[in-house]
Description:
alpha/beta, Purple Acid Phosphatase, chain A, domain 2, six-stranded mixed sheet, 23% helix
Amino acid sequence: MKIIHCSDLHLDADLRSKYDAAAAAGRKTELLGSFGRLCRWAQVHGADAILICGDLFDTGSPSPSAVRTVEDLILSYSGILFFYLRGNHDSRQAVFSRRPKPDNLFLFDERWSTRDLDAAGGGRRVCITGREPGASPLTSPALDPSALNIVMLHGQITEGRTGSDPESIPLCLMRGCGIDYLALGHLHHYRAFDLDARGKAAYSGCLEGRGFDECGDCGFVLIDTGPMNTELRTRFVPFASRRVYRIPCDVTGCSSDTEACGRIARALDDAPAGEHDLVRLELTGDLEYGCNPDPALVQKQWEGRYHYFEYKNCAKPVVHSEDFVCDATLKGEFVRTVCAAGELSDDQRTRILRCGLRALSGEPLF
């Protein structure tokens, strides 16, 4: 039996805080399409079930069109069982609140509930058990130790015995109770670990990276219960239609814009990002006075190389005041005045010096 474990799709997310308007709209559509691609992949590869461990949608009030798209996909793939455990972003009325719930969709609530999967050709029973975050404290699930038990939860794992946060999952409650695989949602990066001597656990991570805090491989976990459901094997399947990259470029020691742009070119050439990917170039290190690559020029030079490109200056501005203190010019008088201002912090002084010197040279302040 093959089972897909996914979570944190955050469909219908408003991405305008992460990208420009056009890119945000396009990426929003792609994220919704990723659920359709997942359903097709499941059908082609003979998956029996898809486990959605929370945050299918990004908001409690997703658009009717997004909800309808998800509902239509579940109805279309009637040969696949969908187990949907709502997370902290989801609404309790998110899907099939106005249409009859199909037989291939199983929903959870704040109490433990279990669904048995019939094993083709016999063998051990496969049981899917889960409960949603709620006001009542989390308890250990009551499981049949003879079955192959997959448990679904959404939240942050802890090593404590109890969690005051309804989304916390004390691992001590999940150990020693017969879990073979703990399917988790809430964290946006894949992470797998041993639960106890019998079972393993994993966060599947998000299916697609939405912003530059979700870089790296994104996808789902494929669970294979083996012949007669006698064993359980898992593997992470990268699935995102586009990868998200933050590419750092250290400009420490660069004395001119030309030198800094050369480093930018080398950093981008060395990175694995391609034309279908989303890229943020981040300047790092110490940025000397007199060296400040024009953001508009950097953007124009590189944006055609990727599906989406943006430039962010995270470098620390550096001004060597000793180079100006003996200068009998307006610049020298400005530097001496700022250096004598004892109420300024070092960071404030550096930024004032940098902006002022650029202004006095007729250059852009940033």
